[in-house]
Write a structure and sequence with these properties.
By secondary structure, the protein is mainly α. Helices cover about 80% and strands about 0% of the residues. The protein is built from 16 helices and no strands. α1 packs across α8 and α4 packs parallel to α6 (about 90-105).
């Protein structure tokens, strides 16, 4: 696989993942533009994440059944059209419905991961997967800046319309760039859908990775969904652009994940998971100081969100390393099980975050993050783990992604 193809796939990951996150920065703008409450407008974020979870469960397994190139192009075209429909939505219910479709069709990054693992040479697989993860991380971070800034200038519809045109342009590029492949499996669609559930039942390390990521991602989503409410509220009185600029600080995550990947290669995923869980717990403590407003509060939010982003992404890398090494012949279905659980947690976290914020404010959101992190941390510290042998936690390089 050429470097050009890798970079195109990384950009595609960035755009696809960014579509999930950019609505977080424009919730207050949507509320103002559609004359509704901020709590109601935040349903757009939850709907997009629910749609993404459904897309992972229903569509990603087809990556083991259909040739990758036409499948990816079709998904990007449908996603682009859904984004344009969202940008033209006249009412909140229409926008929520379009958000569901956006989420369901913007699963390209989850198709690209097993594609890259299959196409990359053995001695380059880790580097390729690291590049794709950096692309996904960059998309997650820059999307908030993109939508917050563009929304402040041109209104909440502009980010949706711009993202839709970008997705359609990428579909045309992928149609000429991605190598032709044959379907890796001939299993019928119902069997592909059932396989992730079977893997969850039979693979304890898969279940453990799902618990870790679902809990941490729920807290992560709660914080970032409510951050826009905090910054645009009376404590700070800032605009949606401030949320996007704050997200730029998390660009350091792109430098930290390759280091985390090398640590996973040398030490296995368990030690990296432990450090990441402790990092998320520390971020919850730091973020509480953001409730006070002012320069001190903004500094606490900057440091806390940076720590949260680094810990969440590095933990995801460790979890995926554990998961992808279990069954190299079923990476798509393993990824379906893992990411479905992760985004179910994220969807629940967005809803819980808004509910808690309405009752207990920013302090309540930080306590929610700490409680959600305490679940996998307690499990990690008390669980008995297998010996570090050939099938233990020191996983092959091909699992690092």
């Amino acid at each position: 696989m050429s470097r050009r193809t890798v970079m195109v796939l990384a950009v595609t990951c960035a755009v696809a993942v960014g579509n999930i996150y950019f609505p977080q920065a424009i919730v207050p703008l949507i509320a103002s533009g559609l004359h509704t409450s901020v709590a109601s407008a935040s349903m757009v974020v939850t709907a997009t994440q629910i749609g993404y979870t459904a897309g992972i469960f229903l569509l990603v397994p087809l990556g083991d059944r259909l040739p990758y190139r036409p499948f990816l192009v079709t998904l990007l075209v449908l996603c682009g059209l859904s984004l344009l429909a969202a940008g033209c939505a006249p009412t909140l219910p229409v926008l929520v419905a379009a958000g569901l479709l956006v989420g369901a069709t913007t699963v390209a990054a989850q198709i690209i991961a097993p594609l890259a693992a299959a196409l990359a040479a053995d001695d380059r697989r880790g580097a390729v997967m690291g590049t794709l993860l950096s692309g996904s991380t960059g998309g997650m971070l820059l999307a908030r800046t993109f939508s917050g800034t563009l929304g402040e200038w041109l209104g909440w519809r502009a980010p949706y319309l711009g993202a839709g045109l970008l997705a359609l342009a990428l579909a045309a590029v992928l149609a000429r760039t991605v190598p032709a492949t044959t379907a890796p499996s001939r299993a019928p669609y119902p069997a592909l859908l059932a396989e992730p559930l079977r893997l969850l039942r039979t693979e304890p390390r898969l279940r453990r990775s799902c618990v870790y990521q679902a809990s941490v991602f729920a807290g992560f989503s709660a914080v970032w969904t409510c951050l826009a409410l905090l910054l645009t509220g009376p404590s700070y009185g800032l605009g949606g652009q401030a949320v996007g600029l704050l997200a730029l600080v998390g660009a350091a995550t792109m430098l930290c994940t390759p280091l985390a990947g090398r640590l996973v290669d040398r030490k296995g995923p368990d030690p990296v998971n432990l450090v990441c869980l402790l990092g998320v717990l520390l971020s919850a403590v730091v973020l509480t100081a953001g409730a006070g407003g002012g320069v001190t509060g903004l500094a606490a939010l900057t440091l806390g969100t940076l720590l949260l982003d680094i810990a969440m992404q590095s933990g995801m890398l460790a979890n995926q390393s554990r998961v992808f090494a279990l069954r190299p012949d079923a990476r798509g279905r393993l990824n379906t099980a893992y990411m479905t659980c992760a985004y179910l947690g994220g969807s629940a976290g967005s809803w819980l975050g808004v509910s808690v914020h309405g009752r207990a404010g920013w302090w309540g959101v930080c306590v929610l993050l700490a409680l959600l992190t305490a679940v996998p941390l307690t499990f990690h510290l008390t669980a008995r783990r297998p010996a570090r042998s050939g099938a233990g936690m020191r996983l092959p390089r091909e699992g690092a992604c």
